[in-house]
Write a structure and sequence with these properties.
347 residues; mainly beta; 10-stranded antiparallel beta barrel; 4 helices; 15 strands; globular
């Protein structure tokens, strides 16, 4: 619980620290031939989403894995964006998730993917409680493996500078606060850092799988390093778009595993990657789109321990945009949380 609180406070600190950048809108280098900013429209959304963080344990010298999946599900949500403030609220209703385990611990998955001009930010603060392993990953069982006691905590930051941000806006694809009018591409460079842990009340892999060398009860990690990538949007058929972003990273880090009274430690380097894709239609009145963000975080390799913590977030959005009255605009401006950080927020 203490660790979770510290991670939450760290995540909130990151948001506060980045908020001034997220509130930037005026940039003389913005090319309006490519980008149409819609800051005066109220953007409402209805969406379906699923967030998750899996623990993947690779079996050395074999083409198979053990994959622990969280007891999460599909969420139905409502949200809006106005005056550069975004609020989304979603709930995993039971009728949409019949396979979720009932009466298991609750979890918290905070993900922020922000795209101010010339920047790409990804923030993660995830605290999962309760994991399952599908029987397809098990050699000696034909039933799902349940670990109500298993916990996984992870917090991370990914920040990238987009060289061609005057012509390319990823915000148009992600939250539709702008429209990408022409196709554009740009390389980027950046930095990322992640810290996390996973543990159970006993060894995580079922003992009847006979992989004692791979098994552990508790592990934690920390790693950081530079990354480089390419982003681009294809615009076609008068409003349709296809956006892709891919980056590779080489992290230096530390990992530690505990099994009974034995401890294993390792410093080293490891490659990771981050992918995201967006497809849909976007105009000044409405938008429909799907998007997917996937972060692969390989952990430092210490044979026989070879693992990855993989995070995903996929979403289907239905967007409707409209103008609001000046009275509402003035009222919202007074209570807009972004003004706490940026006193010069445009109105």
């Amino acid at each position: 619980m203490v660790l979770s609180r510290k991670l939450i406070f760290s995540f909130l600190f990151c948001i506060i620290g980045l908020a001034p950048l997220l509130a930037q809108v005026d940039n003389p280098k913005l090319d309006t031939n490519y980008i149409d900013v819609q800051e005066k429209l109220f953007i409402s959304r209805l969406y379906l989403s699923r967030k998750y963080t899996n623990l993947l344990i690779r079996v050395p010298d074999q083409e198979r894995n053990y994959v622990f999946e969280p007891n999460s599900g599909i969420n139905l949500g409502l949200g809006f964006t106005y005056q550069f403030f975004t609020l989304n609220v979603a709930v995993p209703f039971g009728f949409m998730n019949p396979d979720r385990q009932k009466n298991w611990p609750t979890y918290l998955d905070l993900q922020a993917h922000a795209y101010p001009q010339k920047w790409i930010f990804d923030l993660y603060a995830q605290f999962y409680r309760g994991y399952t392993m599908d029987q397809k990953f098990l050699e000696n069982s034909d039933t799902k493996y349940l670990r109500k006691d298993m916990k996984l905590n992870s917090i991370g930051l990914n920040a990238n500078y987009l060289f061609g941000g005057e012509k390319l806006t990823l915000a148009a694809a992600f939250n539709q606060v702008a429209i990408q009018k022409k196709s554009a591409f740009s390389p980027f460079i950046g930095f990322e850092s992640y810290v996390g842990s996973m543990k159970g009340d006993s060894l995580l892999i079922p003992e009847n799988e006979s992989v004692n060398d791979l098994n552990f009860k508790k592990a934690n990690y920390f790693q950081f390093g530079p990354n480089v990538g390419l982003a681009g949007t294809l615009v076609f058929w008068n409003g349709f778009f296809l956006t892709g972003v891919a980056s590779v990273n080489y992290s230096v880090g530390f990992a530690r595993w505990e099994r009974e009274d034995v401890e294993f430690k390792k410093w080293g380097g490891v490659p990771t990657y981050l992918l995201r894709g967006f497809f849909g239609y976007n105009n000044k009145r409405f938008s429909i789109n799907v998007n997917y963000v996937y972060k692969n975080l390989n952990l430092v390799l210490q044979r026989p321990f070879d693992q990855a913590v993989n995070t995903g977030n996929y979403r289907l959005n239905l967007i409707y945009k409209f103008k609001v009255s000046k009275e509402f605009s003035d009222w919202f401006y007074k209570i807009n949380p972004m003004r706490i950080i940026n006193k010069n927020l445009p109105h």
